Amino acid sequence: MINTRALVRFIEDDEVFRSSQELLLRAHGFEVAGFSSAVDFLEHDDLLRPGCLVLDVRMPGMTGLELQNILLDKGCEIPIVFLSGHGDIAMAVHAMQLGAVSFLEKPIEPTLLLETIKKAVDASVAQYKAAQQARRNREQFEALTPREKEIVLLAARDAANKEIARELGIAEATVKMHRANAFAKLGVKSPLEAHLALERLGIISAGE
Q: Tell me, what's the pLDDT at 2?
């Protein structure tokens, strides 16, 4: 089972610095996991868990930028906050172009670090919840019968029951029954809500 609590991963080969930052983050309510290397992180972390990754750029073995590329290849969307005592503009621009949310240079102002991590974590949690809702909506739609799918698609486009009955060649009472069942399964109460739900799934477009 996936742990849905947000986790801040702190990857830093300097154990003293890493420990001090972990203490700071925990003191402000964050759940933190520390890793001494990128390899250690890849071997032990749950990449599906929301949160963020605080990552040193220059580390023995695999660098932070190399890890970022690996995570991109895996389709991992954990927000990355880069830290560096040796950063330069070109490195920061490259990291940000690849999707990093921030690039902070050591020594780090604690308030700035906390604010940056909070924004990254909040964004990750929101994205995770949206993805979970989309998955549930997709499952709900796939649970509809073929007839219910036909009818809910037409109803979402604001077709009246009489119109749907005529188009499908069935009784209006049958349309009402299937429409009520489909709306209940999707958790919607009106054609507009049905349209929005199907739009989020990419089944119909905003202009339809």
A: 53
Length of the chain, in residues: 208
Domain 143-200 fold is: Arc Repressor Mutant, subunit A (1.10.10)
Q: Say what the pLDDT of residue 115 is.
A: 95
Mean residue pLDDT across the chain: 89
Domain 7-133 has CATH 3.50.50.60: no
Residue with tokens 């560096």: 84
Q: What is the DSSP string of the chain?
A: ----S-EEEEE-S-HHHHHHHHHHHHHTT--EEEESSHHHHHHH--TTS-EEEEEESS-SSS-HHHHHHHHHHTT----EEEEESS--HHHHHHHHHTT-SEEEESSPPHHHHHHHHHHHHHHHHHHHHHHHHHHHHHHHHHTS-HHHHHHHHHHHTT--HHHHHHHHTS-HHHHHHHHHHHHHHHT--SHHHHHHHHHHTTSS-TT-
Domain definitions of the chain by residue range? 7-133, 143-200
Neighbour-count burial for 73-92, b at 16+ CB within 10 Å, e otherwise:
eeeebbbbbbbbeebeeebb
d(CA 66, CA 170): 60
**Amino acid occupying residue 173:** A
